[in-house]
Design a protein that fits this description.
This protein has about 200 residues and is mainly alpha-helical. Helix content is about 80%, strand content about 0%.
Length: about 200
């Protein structure tokens, strides 16, 4: 069941063109990651406190910040993919097959759910490749951070929560820097296309 939820959420990141739906898919992935990390955080007060703070940042602060930005800038609601839908569908299938092959590697075969982490990371990277909207790149960084955290929770269940909190802060810094960049480009280029960056080059 968890595999199906992760596949649908990851596929949505590539296939769907509406930013609000992609944010929802990110929240599902972040919640899934939280479910994997939660058992290792519940044994002592400090890890539990860090876990709650990190979960709040990932599941509340970042999504709310993006949605507030969308409310102020409706044009950012279209991710403007550079690949047509059939091509994006083939890409998702390729990611799924690659993740399955990763899970069958001799070093990872004994580890359950390794394919889930690989698929999440591939989908985050795919967002950076497929969508031209700058906001999609911000979301792609968030998804990549979530995939890495999921991999840590699967490969090293006792990973210190301080490491995960630091990764979360990095992701949030990237997010809000990205939002500031997008806000700056909105005033000059309402398409929010990454080609705007190329036009700035001398």
């Amino acid at each position: 069941m968890l595999d199906l939820v992760l596949f649908v959420s990851g596929a949505s990141l590539i296939l769907v063109t509406r930013t609000s739906f992609v944010v929802a898919a990110y929240v599902v992935l972040a919640a899934l990651t939280t479910a994997f990390v939660a058992p290792s955080a519940a044994h002592a007060p400090l890890p539990l406190t860090l876990f709650v703070a990190s979960t709040t940042l990932k599941l509340v602060v970042a999504p709310v910040g993006i949605m507030l930005f969308l409310r102020a800038n409706p044009l950012a609601g279209d991710l403007r993919p550079s690949i047509v839908l059939p091509g994006r569908l083939l890409l998702v299938i390729g990611f799924a097959l690659t993740a399955r092959d990763v899970a069958h590697l001799s070093a990872l075969r004994p580890i359950a759910n390794a394919d889930m982490a690989a698929f999440a990371i591939l989908c985050g990277a795919g967002m950076l490749i497929v969508h031209r909207n700058l906001l999609a790149h911000v979301l792609g960084l968030l998804v990549l951070g979530t995939g890495v955290t999921l991999a840590g929770a699967i490969l090293a269940p006792n990973l210190p929560e301080s490491v995960e909190l630091g990764a979360t802060f990095d992701a949030l810094v990237a997010t809000f820097i990205g939002l500031a960049l997008v806000r700056a480009f909105v005033a000059q280029d309402p398409l929010l296309d990454v080609e705007s960056l190329q036009r700035l080059r001398g």
